């Protein structure tokens, strides 16, 4: 049962990666596209790390550290890109 849940989390993470990449083909601004990509990559990577945590519970300190790092750094990057892509940021 744990293996099925683990592979499901990894599969959902890969779907998020491809779903975020598909937004690059839209007609929105470059910064909006990068923001969408960073959010999808964060969710996908965290889902994959959680799947690996279920698969290899002996490595939980490293995997928890990876999940926390992804949550902090990718969220900050996503907020910066969102701010720059809004009308409030004059970085074009």
Helix content: over 70%
Quote the average pLDDT.
Answer: 84
Query: Compute the gyration radius: what is it?
Result: 15 Å
Overall, the morphology is elongated
Number of helices: 3
Give the assembly state of these chains.
Answer: single chain
SSE string, helix = H, strand = E?
HHH
Q: pLDDT below 50 for ≥5 consecutive residues: which ranges?
A: none
Structural class: mainly alpha
Instruction: Tell me the distance between the termini.
Output: 50 Å
Q: How many beta strands in the DSSP annotation?
A: 0
Biggest sheet architecture: none
Q: Beta fraction of the residues?
A: under 5%
Protein name: Monovalent cation/H(+) antiporter subunit G
Transmembrane segments: 6-25, 37-56, 62-84
Keywords: Membrane, Transmembrane, Transmembrane helix
GO molecular function, one term: antiporter activity
Please provide a brief summary of the model.
One of its GO terms (molecular function) is antiporter activity. The protein has 92 residues and is mainly α.
From the structure above, extract its key features.
about 90 residues; mainly alpha; 3 helices; elongated
Descriptive notes:
This is Monovalent cation/H(+) antiporter subunit G. Pfam families: PhaG_MnhG_YufB. GO terms for molecular function: antiporter activity. InterPro entries: PhaG_MnhG_YufB. It comes from Iningainema tapete BLCC-T55. The chain is mostly helical. The chain contains 3 helices and no strands. Helix 1 runs antiparallel to helix 2 and helix 2 packs antiparallel against helix 3. It starts with a helix and ends in a 7-residue tail after the last helix.
